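Reading group handout, session on sequence-to-structure problems. Before we discuss, look at one worked example. The prompt was deliberately terse, the way you'd type it at a terminal:

> structure Enoyl-CoA hydratase domain-containing protein 3, mitochondrial

The input record follows.
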Amino acid sequence: MSSLLRSALAGGVLRLTLADAATRNSLSEAMMGALRAALAEAAGDRSVRVIVLAAEGPAFSSGHNLKEITAHRADPDKGAAYFATLFDSCAALMLGIVNHPKPVIAEVAGLASAAGCQLVASCDLAIAAEGARFCTPGVNIGLFCSTPMVALSRNVASKHAMEMLLTGDVYGAEDAQRFGLVNRVVPAADLTATVNELAAKIASKSMVTLRTGKQAFYRQRDLPLAEAYAYTARVMTENLLMRDAEEGIAAFIGKRDPQWSDEP
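And the output record:
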């Protein structure tokens, strides 16, 4: 595990903590690489049932490392190849979260800016402390937050997303909840306990069921209505034939706790 990222596993919940306070937990090449590696490892680890992304210091993440970006302007192509690779890497990280078989929860205590806001939006759930703040401020430095816009526009109503993108303003946690960027806002002192309680509740479910449902959620969302119903009908049929669905229904009828196999 990279020194930029701390890892702790307890009760089936893997907590990955961004720990590069010196750069306000920027999504540098090294940080994105560490996150992608940790997520890939967790995907195949049966002891991991839920993942929490948290951060040390006053910023959840400040977004891309502008010093790294600026350094590559001296490249013969003025940085074009590096920039393309950087954004490809970032897209792979965000897709890795959305396509991950385990639920991913963002625990946001500080500022989530630009690609840091994109990281929050890419997670399946997000819980914020009352003092957390969110922004996509690229427009303020002549660089529109086009890649953060992808995740933002899929989680936030269009008018709210455009307001954030066009103004570059910083929004508080309550606005982020109202916009739909985070699920709930809690006092800072209660943040970790709230996230742990939510993660534990989800971790108690059948993993094969959660994996099936998470995949279906993101796939159906972009389908036309009739195609979405046809697709999810197939998914539910396949789901009903799984061992955990049979066990869960039997346990419900028998008024007992289910014993999950976590297998198809």
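Points for discussion. First: Strands lie at 5-10, 13-18, 50-55, 59-61, 104-108, 111-113, 125-129, 133-135, 171-172, 184-186. Second: The first strand starts at residue 5 and ends at 10.
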